[in-house]
Amino acid sequence: MSRVKVAVLGATGSVGQRFIQLLDNHPYFEVTHLCASENSAGKTYGDVMKSRWKISSDIPAYAKNIVITTPDPSKTSGAALAFSGLDASIAGEVESAYANAGIHIISNSKNHRMDPKVPLLSAEVNASHLEVLDSQTTKGKIITNSNCTIMGVTITLKPLFDRFGIESVMLFSMQAISGAGYPGVPSMDILGNVVPHIGGEEEKAEIEPLKCLGRVENGKIVHADFPISAHCNRVPVFDGHTVCVSVKFKQKPSREEVLSAWKNFSGEPQSLALPSAPNPAILYREEEDRPQPRLDLNTGNGMTTVVGRLRPDPILDWKYVVLSHNTIRGAAGAALLNAELLYKKNFLG
Ligand code: NAP
């Protein structure tokens, strides 16, 4: 079966590089076009990325000789789908232009996330939300990922929300510097330091899980209805967002019930055996000092959500720690999993 031709928009950024790595020899998708800003356009990907490639494996051979263009649907003809890792200042407009031109968009940017017609898709959590794509009138459809900080949190909440109901959530993040893109946070601001503010992050962390955990009624997503309070911090870690979470439940589960809900959690990516589906989706570590970014980040090729330190919370009911890889599970890997789901369910035509 021939592979679907795809473009990567924002191919030179932190998320774009992950796309390039994860799409190397992909069974469903073939990268034919790479796009970035005017600064990179007209040069080969290999030339532009010589000093900008930040992943420990080499730049895949397939990408090196592709000449970068600016993101314009007329310059990416032949591609049926575009993965977007574009800067948010431009993503909204460009992604809409692609959808209008009949090219599907799988986006990591915030711009379309809260549009009621756009699924905020986390493939294990809310594959049923693909139903709302029918309400998009463009030939190309837009699908987004959630914010990288709450990706792992939402995955851990999903089986608990379904079984026990949730009254409220508090979360405290320790977010890696790669989450700010490249070159990102100046080294003099972050080395040996903690920055207790990330613009717009807490607002996203307090609303996006509610859309992901929502249900579809009459073709519309009805958000889950509980308050989330988020504190978001930047810490001097290269990759991997760690989040401390406290949850108050409608029906308080036992420790064994929480652990069993996580252990048995899987979704359509696992049942369809999608190439990027992690197995397990959630891994609980019994050690008292895990998860840690340095030790646990690459669990399941960076796609498994790693949890630990489940213990009683004296104010809410239970508290725990979640780690997820921000540029893989929180961005490019999740977007690729979403695209694999669309492919397998014949949404790509
Ligand atoms: P980044 O490293 O700053 O990369 C931004 C990309 O956008 C680069 O390829 C850049 O091209 C391109 N770009 C910027 N301005 C442009 C313009 N005017 N026209 C065309 N292309 C333009 O950012 P990132 O961290 O990869 O994040 C990309 C998106 O994903 C953002 O919306 C971010 O919020 C979201 N996100 C990031 C993460 C993460 O962990 N980093 C996780 C989830 C979601 P040049 O190199 O040519 O400038």
TrEMBL record:
<feature type="binding site">
    <location>
        <position position="113"/>
    </location>
    <ligand>
        <name>phosphate</name>
    </ligand>
</feature>
<keyword id="KW-0791">Threonine biosynthesis</keyword>
<keyword id="KW-0028">Amino-acid biosynthesis</keyword>
<feature type="binding site">
    <location>
        <position position="234"/>
    </location>
    <ligand>
        <name>substrate</name>
    </ligand>
</feature>
<dbReference type="GO" id="GO:0009088">
    <property type="term" value="P:threonine biosynthetic process"/>
</dbReference>
<dbReference type="GO" id="GO:0009089">
    <property type="term" value="P:lysine biosynthetic process via diaminopimelate"/>
</dbReference>
<dbReference type="InterPro" id="IPR005676">
    <property type="entry name" value="Asp_semi-ald_DH_pep-lack"/>
</dbReference>
<keyword id="KW-0457">Lysine biosynthesis</keyword>
<feature type="binding site">
    <location>
        <begin position="12"/>
        <end position="15"/>
    </location>
    <ligand>
        <name>NADP(+)</name>
    </ligand>
</feature>
<protein>
    <recommendedName>
        <fullName>Aspartate-semialdehyde dehydrogenase</fullName>
        <ecNumber>1.2.1.11</ecNumber>
    </recommendedName>
</protein>
<dbReference type="GO" id="GO:0004073">
    <property type="term" value="F:aspartate-semialdehyde dehydrogenase activity"/>
</dbReference>
<feature type="binding site">
    <location>
        <position position="175"/>
    </location>
    <ligand>
        <name>substrate</name>
    </ligand>
</feature>
<dbReference type="Pfam" id="PF01118">
    <property type="entry name" value="Semialdhyde_dh"/>
</dbReference>
<comment type="pathway">
    <text>Amino-acid biosynthesis; L-lysine biosynthesis via DAP pathway; (S)-tetrahydrodipicolinate from L-aspartate: step 2/4.</text>
</comment>
<feature type="binding site">
    <location>
        <position position="201"/>
    </location>
    <ligand>
        <name>substrate</name>
    </ligand>
</feature>
<dbReference type="GO" id="GO:0071266">
    <property type="term" value="P:'de novo' L-methionine biosynthetic process"/>
</dbReference>
<dbReference type="InterPro" id="IPR000534">
    <property type="entry name" value="Semialdehyde_DH_NAD-bd"/>
</dbReference>
<feature type="domain" description="Semialdehyde dehydrogenase NAD-binding">
    <location>
        <begin position="5"/>
        <end position="133"/>
    </location>
</feature>
<dbReference type="GO" id="GO:0046983">
    <property type="term" value="F:protein dimerization activity"/>
</dbReference>
<dbReference type="GO" id="GO:0050661">
    <property type="term" value="F:NADP binding"/>
</dbReference>
<dbReference type="InterPro" id="IPR012280">
    <property type="entry name" value="Semialdhyde_DH_dimer_dom"/>
</dbReference>
<dbReference type="GO" id="GO:0051287">
    <property type="term" value="F:NAD binding"/>
</dbReference>
<feature type="binding site">
    <location>
        <position position="204"/>
    </location>
    <ligand>
        <name>phosphate</name>
    </ligand>
</feature>
<comment type="subunit">
    <text>Homodimer.</text>
</comment>
<feature type="binding site">
    <location>
        <begin position="39"/>
        <end position="40"/>
    </location>
    <ligand>
        <name>NADP(+)</name>
    </ligand>
</feature>
<comment type="similarity">
    <text>Belongs to the aspartate-semialdehyde dehydrogenase family.</text>
</comment>
<comment type="pathway">
    <text>Amino-acid biosynthesis; L-methionine biosynthesis via de novo pathway; L-homoserine from L-aspartate: step 2/3.</text>
</comment>
<feature type="active site" description="Acyl-thioester intermediate">
    <location>
        <position position="148"/>
    </location>
</feature>
<dbReference type="InterPro" id="IPR051823">
    <property type="entry name" value="ASADH-related"/>
</dbReference>
<comment type="function">
    <text>Catalyzes the NADPH-dependent formation of L-aspartate-semialdehyde (L-ASA) by the reductive dephosphorylation of L-aspartyl-4-phosphate.</text>
</comment>
<dbReference type="GO" id="GO:0019877">
    <property type="term" value="P:diaminopimelate biosynthetic process"/>
</dbReference>
<feature type="active site" description="Proton acceptor">
    <location>
        <position position="241"/>
    </location>
</feature>
<feature type="binding site">
    <location>
        <begin position="178"/>
        <end position="179"/>
    </location>
    <ligand>
        <name>NADP(+)</name>
    </ligand>
</feature>
<keyword id="KW-0486">Methionine biosynthesis</keyword>
<feature type="binding site">
    <location>
        <begin position="326"/>
        <end position="327"/>
    </location>
    <ligand>
        <name>NADP(+)</name>
    </ligand>
</feature>
<keyword id="KW-0560">Oxidoreductase</keyword>
<keyword id="KW-0220">Diaminopimelate biosynthesis</keyword>
<keyword id="KW-0521">NADP</keyword>
<dbReference type="InterPro" id="IPR012080">
    <property type="entry name" value="Asp_semialdehyde_DH"/>
</dbReference>
<dbReference type="InterPro" id="IPR036291">
    <property type="entry name" value="NAD(P)-bd_dom_sf"/>
</dbReference>
<dbReference type="InterPro" id="IPR000319">
    <property type="entry name" value="Asp-semialdehyde_DH_CS"/>
</dbReference>
<dbReference type="Pfam" id="PF02774">
    <property type="entry name" value="Semialdhyde_dhC"/>
</dbReference>
